[in-house]
Every structure is written in structure tokens, then in C-alpha cells.
Amino acid sequence: MANITLTVYGAEQICASCVGAPSSKDTYEWLQAAIARKYDTNGISYQYIDINASQEDEKHKAFVERIFEEDLFYPIVFVDDEMVAEGMPKLKNVYKELDERGLTQLQES
């Protein structure tokens, strides 16, 4: 069974270049629902990182600093340590990473 972590970095306020896009939190919830329709989700865990909150974890702290330094578009989606989306995520890219990591797809009825 896969042991995958999907991480979404984002903020309550929609990024200035992403007007009209859903919020990071909405994207985080949408991704969970979309993945649950296609995969057995027992092998996946989710985490949402608010880029405006102080970070205890050094890995998250360093990446949040990078978001601000490089003006990256958020939400930013990682599957494990692989960045799969910046700004509006495409499900195809997320699914590709999940497939490569061996997450089991649900059988179509």
C-alpha cells in the first residue's frame, strides 16, 4: 500500500495574480474529494500549510520563505516531495504523481 502525503501550501487571501480562482483552502478540499472519487485513499494523508502562519517544521518554514522570495503562485501542491502544481492545479498532473507512487485506483463499476 502506498504511503503518500499530499501537501497544499496556501493562504486565506487569494493570490493577486489568481483573481477568480478558488481559495487555497477550497482547492485543498476539492483535491481531497477528486482524489477520493478515483483512488483508494487509505494510503494517502493530506496537510494544509497556511503560508501566513508561523511554521514550526523547518521544511515547511523554508518552503514558505521561498514562496515569498520567488513570488510563487499559490496554492502550491506537493505529492510527497514533488511539486505538482503552482497556482491552479490540474488533476491530470496530481493523478500522474499518485499513479507513479502506486496509489490504488478504485475499480469502475
UniProtKB/TrEMBL annotation:
It comes from the Bacteria. Transmembrane segments: none annotated. It holds the Pfam family DUF1462. InterPro entries: DUF1462, Thioredoxin-like_sf, YuzD-like_sp. This is YuzD family protein. The lineage of its organism: Bacteria, Bacillati, Bacillota, Bacilli, Bacillales.
